[in-house]
Amino acid sequence: MVGIVLVSHSAELAAAVKALAEQVAQGKVPIAVAGGIDDPANPFGTDAAKVQQAIESVYGADGVLVLMDLGSAILSAEMARDFLLPEQQARVRLSGAPFVEGAVAAAVQAAVGATLDQVAAEAEAGRQPKAEQLGEITVPALATTLTELEKPAAAATLTVRNAAGLHARPAALFVQMAARFQSDVRVRNLTRNRGPASAKSSVGLMTLQVSQGDQIAVLADGPDAAEAIAALADLVESNFGEPEAAPSPTFAPPLSVSPPPPLRLPPSPPGPSPILSGIAASPGIAIGPAFVFRPESPAVGRRKVEDLAAERTRFRAAVAQARAELVEVQGEAEVKLGADQARIFEAQRMFLQDPALIDQVEARIDKERLNAEAAIEETVEDLAALFEHMDAPILQARAADVRDVGTRLIRLLTGWRPPSLSSLTRASIIVASDLKPSDTAQLDPKQVLGLATAAGSATSHTAILARGLGLPAVVGLGETVVDLAEGTNMILDGFTGQLLVDPDLNMLSEYRVRQAASEQRRAAALAGVGEPAVTRDGHRVEVAANIGDEAGARLAVANGAEAVGLLRTEFLYLDRSNPPSEDEQVAAYTAIANALEGRPLIIRTLDIGGDKPALYLDLPEELNPFLGWRAIRFCLARPDVFKTQLRAILRAAQGRNIRSCSR
């Protein structure tokens, strides 16, 4: 990590700027000060010896950036650098950036692991937000300044308009698009003056904290820079396929039910309140006993290793196995939740190929001779903390996904087996400090009445999965909730965000009435799902679903889908030792078409490869498997597989409303 030295005529000023920089960098960046001189009568000035000591205290292989306030501070810094060894001098950069703004900007960039060149460039751009606010430069002029600074072959200034900004899914789409091109592509958030970040790192993009309405500069260098910029501009201008209006956080796919009227609760008696307030994450009312879930973390010892190559191999094997597991988890989640909700685990697979995770773990193994488990744990905590300190709740929620990925990797390396929620023996309300997405995906809706967690937000993946499962959920209740005794009776109100502990008979009676009324409203809404979708001005809209199997087809029909726009056929090919036969495929496609009761069905031919491995197909390892030998490229190269599937689709289509497409 790049170190930072602050040289000032005033010791107090240097200390204050250091405190400010440490705050924005969450204490992750080594920062030293060289302020004032040792003369009580005249303390203002600079001392080259102090500057040298400060540089040496934060010096590392990534280098040091030195910022100075004025006058003799520059001379002292130059002299101090001359005192260093030649190999050290080459890694020490003196910056003419503004002292305060430059220090803050440099600290933020150093905290995300940027190079010395990147940290210095960010410091130089430190004054730009202030200049823009004061009208000294406009946003287009700022883009020009950045273009000149970076000297890219192509650049564009774009406005992000989708409701959630560059959160996990749009960031993943941005990375996938950028990865199609050879050029080096970087992104800056002009509105917040954050970056640059590699366009090929989803974690890096999310650290830019791009929100709706923010302007970004996309800069590309390389043989296909213009094409890369054009493609990324199209992606941003299409809003990543998302709406500009934010969805309601209490929307419960596939059906939203209006909340019951407010309940007048009796005043709380003296002592601990039996009513805990949190965030309404998924609507509905649950009444029942508490099951308090207190999972332990795997014990990870920090130790030195001798064979670094072997340790990297262990790590890479765990990554490959984790990716394969997540394919299986996603398939199971698609059955319970539908394909769209299950894409949460696709985002986790993206983390497992992101350089922000992979490169940092391997760097810790190499530089610190650290065992893979400890390197993973430390890297994951750094990334999770980075997300937790972001402004946007939707980005803060990604910390849980990073930790979930880390836990999976450590489990594979150590053989540790975490407690599971899949073995519940009676219907209960799950109470936990927090639930990882993989915990929630294991839930059996028949045994789980609702979810109550100490942490979390309405945009967390746990909340999203709870809504997909149709489970009432309240999050953000505070850590006291996990102190409840096992089996405590409670009422969970997913409409108001309240948890009522040990309710009396009157309260139970009132909530049972409300619960029944809520279920009646839901039943009434379900009764109308077969009605045509017509806008207020009379425009007819077809409502179609994307599915991954027969269960998805039945769920789509039950909730009013008029067609299936995409059937993903990979479920037939994964988690087995040989490809499905033609007859097996005919049976599967026929069952799905029959479940749709004559509604149109579009079957997508096999999209194997990339993030969906099948060992029996002997797919090669590729640097960029998402854009390599997969989908239609694979099918055309393997006519034995492709023709078998086409014959099966044609046979199943006899007398049924089936069409096909290829990707």
Description:
By secondary structure, the chain is of the alpha/beta class. Helices cover 43% and strands 16% of the residues. It has 25 helices and 22 strands. The chain has an eight-stranded mixed β-sheet. It has a four-stranded parallel β-sheet with strand order 2-1-3-4, sandwiched between helices. It has a four-stranded antiparallel β-sheet with strand order 5-8-6-7, sandwiched between helices. A hairpin with a 4-residue loop joins strand 6 and strand 7 (194-198). Helix 5 runs antiparallel to helix 6 (116-124), helix 9 runs antiparallel to helix 11 and helix 12 packs antiparallel against helix 14 (344-351). The model is unreliable at 137-149, 246-258, 261-273 and 622-626 (pLDDT under 50).
Helix content: 40-55%
Question: Unreliable segments (pLDDT under 50, ≥5 consecutive)?
Answer: 137-149, 246-258, 261-273, 622-626
Strand content: 15-25%
N- to C-terminal separation? 42 Å
Number of domains: 5
Assigned CATH superfamily of the largest domain:
Phosphotransferase system, mannose-type IIA component
